[in-house]
Design goal:
Main location: cytoplasm
Low-confidence stretches: none
Strand content: 5-15%
EC number: 3.2.2.27
Mean pLDDT: 95
GO biological process, one term: base-excision repair, AP site formation via deaminated base removal
Family: Belongs to the uracil-DNA glycosylase (UDG) superfamily. UNG family.
CATH architecture: 3-Layer(aba) Sandwich
Radius of gyration: 17 Å
Number of domains: 1
CATH topology: Uracil-DNA Glycosylase, subunit E
Helix content: 25-40%
CATH class: Alpha Beta
Distance between the termini: 30 Å
Shape: globular
CATH superfamily: Uracil-DNA glycosylase-like domain
Strand order of the largest sheet: 3-2-5-6
Structural class: alpha/beta
Catalytic activity: Hydrolyzes single-stranded DNA or mismatched double-stranded DNA and polynucleotides, releasing free uracil
Amino acid sequence: MAEANIKLEESWKEALSPEFESPYMQQLKAFLVEEKQRGRVIFPRGSEYFRALDLTPLDEVQVVILGQDPYHGFGQAHGLCFSVRPGVRIPPSLVNIYKELETDLGIPPARHGFLESWAKQGVLLLNSVLTVEESQAASHQGKGWERFTDAVIRRVNDECDGVVFMLWGSYAQKKAAFVDTERHLVLKAAHPSPLSAHNGFLGCRHFSKANAYLAEHGRDPIDWALPSNPEAS
């Protein structure tokens, strides 16, 4: 995964060049190539591995939402955590995110799960692991992606000011435990999964808290209402 061969938004490409030149990323690339040669189906498609970074340049990051793995069902994953392609059934965790949005900001639930309009406003929708084998949850954990996405979070922490980190669930909270709470706002809640959403995610009001913080720091709030036509986002 030589840095020179990566098609990536320029601010991220420059910031992450040491990662792409590191042995662990070469090993990760070799793993992905071998998996494809063995006929394994990998999600998302290769052009979307870094979609979250492409849509949200480093100097435009306002909010960070962390996920764990891409969806492993056919046609779901497209490079943004919690988001699915237009026409795909809205996943249960995203249903609960929409419930909280309605409670918090009065925004009716969208009829689709395509979150690119958030990403284009500066919401970095980052999974910890950026690929997965079809129907094999967590199949690409421990292959190097976690180290790479740690580096992404570290760049945001070190090079940006006044970013809101929405850390849902213990996994996200541990992954971003090093974030400087004097420079950034760190919001913590349970994961929006149906298994845990009632343990503190529903009612957390992270969306209004994020917008209030951004406004206090002279930044544009996020329009969390998704367009009715997902293709228009």
